[in-house]
Write a structure and sequence with these properties.
Residues 1-61 form the HTH tetR-type domain. Residues 24-43 bind DNA. This is Transcriptional regulator. It comes from Peribacillus loiseleuriae. By secondary structure, this protein is an all-alpha fold. It has three domains: 1-44, Orthogonal Bundle (Arc Repressor Mutant, subunit A), CATH 1.10.10; 48-201, Orthogonal Bundle (Tetracycline Repressor, domain 2), CATH 1.10.357; 211-275, no CATH class. It has 14 helices and no strands. Helix 8 (143-162) packs antiparallel against helix 9 (170-187) and helix 13 (248-258) runs antiparallel to helix 14 (265-275). The chain starts with a helix and ends with a helix.
Length: 277
């Protein structure tokens, strides 16, 4: 296991028990069986480690949801697939999700809040694209209220299995929320959140990731994973970025090869945006 990955996994175990604040670098290095020097070769500080964990967790969630929305061709199934994917993704990463929600509420760490705002904006973009695709002009005046309603459903029902350990049938839950969302979309007539209000409260999202930055991410991933079809696909995708020769169908196939690898999901998401797939 790569040392950076080991540190992240072992630190997560401690954060789950003690929280961010109560966990020291000394405890993390002892739990990993490494020296402090080895820790600082991977992370400059505990805050940098925490942000790396947040990035890893949120990248998995966002890329899963984005892929589902863009690749579900049947509009009748889209909303269900969105909810099911979202809940299932949080369930897979429930240990960190619990910490993140709790710490975000209590945190005064500006960088943590900025980072979470960034991923929240990406999530809102995905939800808006889904709403406009499903309902079109029908929700022209209420689509922003609908975004917040969907986000409210997500956070409220997540609490059931994150904090109350309630066994949930994700199929039934997703079906139930599809019904509720459709009722709101088709029958809500009094908008509260306007385009003007959205413009007032939103902060600029990070600029589009440059081709050079994507190239760097691909190189890091190539160095970090063992020989596999994912690694071969990454090498070809790196080549495509510098010298485009493949037709779109081949690029889509390469992206499909890497999208389920936990260390490749984010670059898969970024490349899909870049190539507009």
């Amino acid at each position: 296991m790569i040392k950076k990955q080991l540190i992240m996994e072992k630190a997560l175990e401690l954060f789950a028990k003690q929280g961010f604040e109560a966990t020291s670098i000394q405890q993390i290095t002892e739990h990993c069986g490494i020296s402090k020097g080895s820790f600082y070769l991977s992370f400059k500080s505990k805050d940098e480690l925490i942000l790396a964990l947040i990035d890893h967790f949120m990248m998995q969630i966002i890329s899963d949801i984005d892929y589902t929305v863009k690749h579900t061709n049947d509009d009748k199934k889209l909303l269900y697939e969105f909810y099911y994917t979202m809940f299932h993704s949080f369930y897979k990463h429930s240990d960190f999700a619990k910490i993140l929600i709790k710490e975000q509420i209590q945190s005064f760490n500006k960088e943590l809040l900025v980072r979470m705002h960034y991923y929240n904006r990406l999530n809102e973009e995905i939800i808006l694209s889904m709403i406009e695709r499903l309902y079109g002009e029908e929700v022209k005046l209420t689509k922003y209220d609908l975004i917040y309603s969907i986000k409210g459903f997500m956070s409220t029902y997540l609490e059931l299995f994150l904090f109350y350990n309630v066994p949930l049938d994700f199929t039934l839950l997703s079906q139930s929320l599809v019904e509720k969302t459709n009722l709101l979309a088709r029958h809500a007539t009094v908008p509260f959140i306007s385009q003007e209000l959205i413009e007032m409260i939103k902060q600029p999202i990070h600029k589009e990731v440059s081709k050079e930055h994507m190239f760097d991410i691909i190189e890091q991933n190539i160095a970090g994973i063992e020989e596999s079809i994912e690694k071969e696909s990454l090498i070809l995708l790196k080549q495509q970025l510098t010298e485009p020769t493949f037709v779109p169908a081949i690029v889509k196939g390469l992206l499909e090869n890497i999208r389920n690898h936990p260390h490749c999901k984010w670059i898969s998401y970024l490349l899909r945006r870049y190539y507009k797939f």
